[in-house]
Amino acid sequence: MKIIKGTGIGTKKASGILRFYRSNKSSLNNKFTTYENEMKRLEKAISGVKKSIESLSKKAKTKIGNEEAKIFEIHMMLLEDEDLFETVTYEISRGECAEKAISEASEKYARMLKALDDEYLSERANDIKDIASQLINELSGGENKEFIHTSPYILVADDLSPSQTVSLDKDKILGFVTFYGTPSSHTSILARAMGIPALVGVGEIDEKYDGKYCLLDSENGEIIISPTENEISIFKEKEKEQNRIAKEHESYLKELINKPAISKNGHRVLIYANIGSEKEAEGALLNGADGIGLLRSEMMYLSSDRYPSEDELYYAYKEAITEMKGRRVIIRTLDIGADKQIPYFNIPKEENPALGYRGVRICLDRIDIFKTQLRAILRASVYGKASIMLPMIVSEKEIIKCREILEECKNELFEENYAFDSKIELGIMIETPASAIMSDVLAKHVDFFSVGTNDLTQYTLAVDRQNPKVSYIGEQNHEAILRLIEIAANAIHKKGGWIGICGELGADLTLTQKFVDMKIDELSVSSPYLLGIRKRVGECL
Ligand code: PEP
Ligand code: MG
To answer: Quick check: 294 and 275 in contact, CB under 8 A?
Structure first.
């Protein structure tokens, strides 16, 4: 038995097998050798994976049951699927290495199955991805031989980059444990959005624990690896009780779902959701979101290996906007750089990336990319109510330049006979001290502000949001942050605009009264927190 401490995210518990995350992505860039050799490698990998599936299937039948073992039969069928094999072969004939060929072919195949709108086939799309990752793993030496994602697990990683995070199979993750990271790092943000327990900043864990059973308690900030029978039974009892209370709470909260959040003194707060992709809009709506306060559009860039086209972005935005049925959807323009690096952007390595080439600075330098986004948002804006939000603003000049480019896009679309919302709202994030201090000047140029407290905390308190050694400084709801929010709120209200908060502090129920006092108009949080915030606003004076 071993106990490891860290910072808990959320209050939930989880138990299951620990799995260490190793990315397959690097091997996708392997050099193509010859057609014959890549084919030989492919065939060897298929036979290796078949063998390990056979052995796992036998184990599953004896230890778990025939029903659960069926998944292995499906995997075996997929490995023998001729169409899939031909697609991989075709990719190899185009000069791709076996790893890349499998990845490309499985993506294509999975997309095709998903498009058929058939639940069973859609499920198979996930199996194809599963098989592909096993084959790629086998090709790179089979490090993860036993790591077959057939049952959910607790993920262990040093620190997941945002692009690794978006590529995870989120349905299979019971919880996260990361060596590094802090409550405002992107892994924690994702854990909150998924409503799953997590533990960050635990320090290094020996890989010998891979595959071991563990108990994860995010409320107490600890995991117990290889627990005793007694520890398991105490944990399960507590978990049962916690689930019972959570169920009661949930059904009570559900009654609030479509009621406006109004404080006792009559201040209405719109309760919005933060999402990373159009697919999450449905969940936001189910949890009663009044709108989307932050669509982190960079997630679409992070999950791709090339620049998304205007049409691809347009379809994604259209889906989110349509799903929200007339409720506001705030699309933040690309916010990469710092911890969100994307290989195909070829951003040179920087000494201090958080203070460097990121957010709107990249968009104002790479205007082609910026315009692709703005045009896609404008085109999608006819399907409901869209707003545009600019990240990392520090000066008036940046907004003026962005507005000029926005007008240019509108003119182009008009000439090309596209319909769009010509009065689309433009807002900025308040996430640098400069933007809060200068908010009276900046407010003249925009319709709204949204406070990004994650970065505002990092830049105001000089606390790297990725560094667990100093995160305690940022966790104390420092008065400096609250004062900056208040300055910005007063400035925008004076100009007749409105203000929201989309950083993690927005979900802190101990601050809701303060936000109501400041007349904050909107709080945007991860979907699982929406109802709790709605309830809390109603209790505020
Ligand atoms: C923030 O900085 O508070 C924010 C919402 O943006 P992100 O977490 O994506 O940097
Ligand atoms: Mg930010």
So the answer is: yes
pTM of the predicted model as reported, rounded to 2 decimal places = 0.75
Sign of CA dihedral 140, 144, 145, 150: negative
d(CA 270, CA 268): 7
Task: Judge whether 502 counts as a catalytic residue.
Answer: yes
Ligand closest to CA 276: 1
How confident is the chain (541 residues) per 10-residue block, as mean pLDDT? 92 92 67 90 90 75 63 83 89 90 86 75 75 81 50 86 70 89 84 88 90 93 95 94 88 88 98 95 94 96 90 97 97 94 89 95 98 98 98 98 98 98 98 98 98 96 90 85 98 98 96 98 95 96 96
Joined together, the tokens standing for residue 355 give 């203070």
Distance (Å) from CA 454 to ligand 2 centroid: 6
- φ/ψ of 194, rounded to 5, equals -85, -10
- Report the separation in Å between the CA atom of 521 and the middle of ligand 2, taken as the mean of its atom positions: 19
- Count Cβ atoms below 10 Å from residue 47 Cβ, excluding itself: 11
Task: Determine contact, residues 7/471, Cβ cutoff 8 Å.
Answer: yes
Residues having CB closer than 6 A to ligand 1 are 294, 296, 335, 431, 452-455, 502-503
Q: Are 148 and 52 in contact (CB under 8 A)?
A: yes
Per DSSP (E only), the strands in 391-502 are: 425-430, 448-451, 498-501
CA distance 371 to 13: 44
Domains of the chain are 2-22+146-252 (3.50.30.10), 35-140 (1.10.274.10), 267-539 (3.20.20.60)
- The answer to whether 182 touches 202, Cβ cutoff 8 Å, is no
Rounded to an integer, what distance in angstroms lies between the CA atom of residue 295 and that of residue 316?
11
